[in-house]
Amino acid sequence: MTKRTIFVALPILATLIACGGDSDETSPTTSASSSTSGSSSSSTSSSSSTGGSDVGGAGGMGGGDGGAAVVYDKAVGAAYGLSGDARALLVDPSGTRTVVFNPTTGTFSSGDDVDELEGGPPITEVVAAGTVGDDSYFFDAAGAVTVFDQTLATFSPPEPIGDVLVGTPFVAVGAAFGIGTQLFVFSPGGASYAAYNTSSKTWSPVYDFVADFGGGGTPLANVGAAYNDGEKIVLFNLTGDRYCSYSLTGEFSSAFDITELGDGSLDFND
Questions:
Q1: Which of 70, 142, 180, 204 is 20 to 30 A from 270 via CA?
Q2: Strands 97-102 and 182-186: what pairing?
Q3: Residue 133: pLDDT above 90?
Q4: Which percentage of the chain shows pLDDT scores above 70?
Q5: pLDDT-derived band of residue 32, with 50, 70 and 90 as boundaries?
Q6: 107-108 and 97-102: which strand pairing?
Q7: C-beta of residue 11 within 8 angstroms of C-beta of residue 181
């Protein structure tokens, strides 16, 4: 796997909790000519207003079932950025099926089993993932984490989150993304988040997503999946059927239905 380079590193939490911004009504993931502020976001639908637990709990992302055997074709349960470009690997809410999304072309790869991911992770489901430097963190619904070393192309044995991210305020992870040395981690219900500094091994305080992320103004009520594409953070709601973006210049887009992502052909069963 090619090492991922972060386009710009925000200074710890300060920018994410201090910056708001005007909404952008144009969805940038539908064509190559889209703006760098990212996917769109207006007001949230009723499906994105369901809260979920704040701290603790082992519920899964997306569908909230923590890895049921159901396969979803039109909802996102986990995501992480790939290869230093805008592409992202998307995971269904069951944590067992994946596709690769290319926002430049608006296209999706065919669906694949999660056990094909990076040669096969040592966990049976992926409910959250985030990349910091050369390390990609993969979480399951029970709170275990395995770290993929991009240089060695190897996974670490799965361990409890508290053994890897020491001092974590959450017993399980609902979503994650990386910026610079920071791994941003969301509670299973997607209502709160904190940042883990992978260099100093320290945590920020726990923040409320709606009130604090980007200084407020998010069009989503919670987060069930997220990824950094180098220019913006793409955020999906807990049910995985709505998304928006937060640009690294400090602006939220509008909220869009998942059917408006790319060319609309997302299908984990294909």
A1: 142
A2: unpaired
A3: no
A4: 72
A5: very low
A6: antiparallel
A7: no
